[in-house]
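Design job #97: recover the sequence.
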């Protein structure tokens, strides 16, 4: 590529190619610029879109870039000030991820527009990076085989994950059913416990009532008399419960604060000769 000293450079990559003796890859342009490969790739793309450079892929599919002689440009002696760059290059990286240098104005004062679109070469470079071929040693046919194998593995893993998700959903559904059944059984047990508790309360109340009635009948049957006691009055012994009740009411009417009726139940008999004979009252439990 011939270049003259008075040619206005579009960007830093343009200046590097003007000084180069041979076509350069992206890595070589980036090293000459002292910047990253994405920045160099973006500037090369801007030159390519302007029709100022051409790409010549070499072994491994790595593209090398060379300036095209512009019809209106007065090109001089090529690469009079440049130096040879290393020949080993990495694969092309996708431009647009790093900040690039702003291109200087062209001859008419207008700056070329820089696009963020992915180029085919950039896509291929990304694929090479994904399969571990960053230096572009795998041919395109083999690269397609790697891609197909990766897609097959991805589809298989996706199917396995789908099966695992379905199994987990089935387990969760089973757990939800078990929890619901347990909750229903617990609610039934609580209701049954409350019912039995209420039945026990009713039965105990009925038993206590029967016991009170039984005790009252036993005492009435065993009594031989009734003692009426009222404050400040002499006790009276009566044989009939009706008369004892009337005497107690009469004492209250006469001004007594209260009157008690006590059943007189024999507990034993003392006989001559210092003999004692107990009398068991006819009550339940004795």
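Job complete. Output follows.
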């Amino acid at each position: 590529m011939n270049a003259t000293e008075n040619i206005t450079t579009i960007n830093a990559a343009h200046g590097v190619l003007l000084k180069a003796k041979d076509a350069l890859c992206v890595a070589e342009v980036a090293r000459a610029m002292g910047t990253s490969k994405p920045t160099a790739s973006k500037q090369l793309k801007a030159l390519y879109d302007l029709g100022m450079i051409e790409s010549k892929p070499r072994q491994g599919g790595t593209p090398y870039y060379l300036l095209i002689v512009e019809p209106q440009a007065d090109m001089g002696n090529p690469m009079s000030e440049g130096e040879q760059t290393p020949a080993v290059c990495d694969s092309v990286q996708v431009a647009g991820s790093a900040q690039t240098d702003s291109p200087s104005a062209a001859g008419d004062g207008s700056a070329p527009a820089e696009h963020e679109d992915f180029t085919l070469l950039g896509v291929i470079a990304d694929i090479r990076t994904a399969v571990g071929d960053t230096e572009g040693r795998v041919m395109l046919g083999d690269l397609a085989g790697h891609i197909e194998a990766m897609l097959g593995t991805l589809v298989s893993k996706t199917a396995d994950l789908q099966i695992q998700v379905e199994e987990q959903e089935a387990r969760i559904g089973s757990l939800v059913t078990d929890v619901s059944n347990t909750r229903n059984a617990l609610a039934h047990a609580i209701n049954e416990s409350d019912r039995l508790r209420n039945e026990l309360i009713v039965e105990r109340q009925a038993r206590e009532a029967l016991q009170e009635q039984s005790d009252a009948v036993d005492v009435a049957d065993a009594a031989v008399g009734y003692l009426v006691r009222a404050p400040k009055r002499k006790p009276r012994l009566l044989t009939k419960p009706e008369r004892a009740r009337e005497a107690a009411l009469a004492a209250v009417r006469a001004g007594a604060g209260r009157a008690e009726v006590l059943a007189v139940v024999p507990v034993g008999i003392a006989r001559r000769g210092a003999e004692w004979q107990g009398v068991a009252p006819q009550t339940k439990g004795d």
